[in-house]
Amino acid sequence: MIGMSPCALVALVAAVSGQTTGTLTFTKPAAWTDRAPASSMRVAEFVVPKVPGDAEDADVIVYYFGGSGGSVEANLQRWTMQFQSSKDAARTSSTVNGLRLTSLDVSGTYVAELRPGSAERHNKPGFRMRATVVETPKGPYFIKLTGPAATVDKAGAAFDHFLQSLAFK
User: Fold this and answer.
1) pLDDT digit string (tens) for 122-141?
2) Number of domains making up the chain
3) What per-residue string of b and e applies to 144-169 under the rule 16 or more CB within 10 Å gives b?
């Protein structure tokens, strides 16, 4: 260890202890506005401007729960249950810059809890959510675009570009 640089020593300790360094990086579309994360489990939050006729903006939130947060399937099921819908949710999988992405697209009436564990629920008809689990060497990240269906539809190409920009560095 004598003669090792501090960075090399940190890398060695991380390798020996099984810890992975790095973080998920991405490029935010120009039309999205940054918003301060509401909790330490939120890596980033963005406001997606509403389209004419929609009552509110959409949100993009990037979550990281320290390497936990449940399995891919458990999250897809939970997200599906946040909507009352007559249509089946669409699922897709892809690989971007070596990261496995599993995505869900669901629409209908948004009935998620107002806060985790809350008995109060949203009741927002005409909503849509595009959500993705990003599997990284450091554990999963979770990305959700949620809002009025027309706004989410219009933001679709920007959201796709955002997902394509993901990298773990």
Assistant:
1) 999 999 999 999 999 999 99
2) 1
3) bbbbbbbbbebbeebbeebbeebbbe
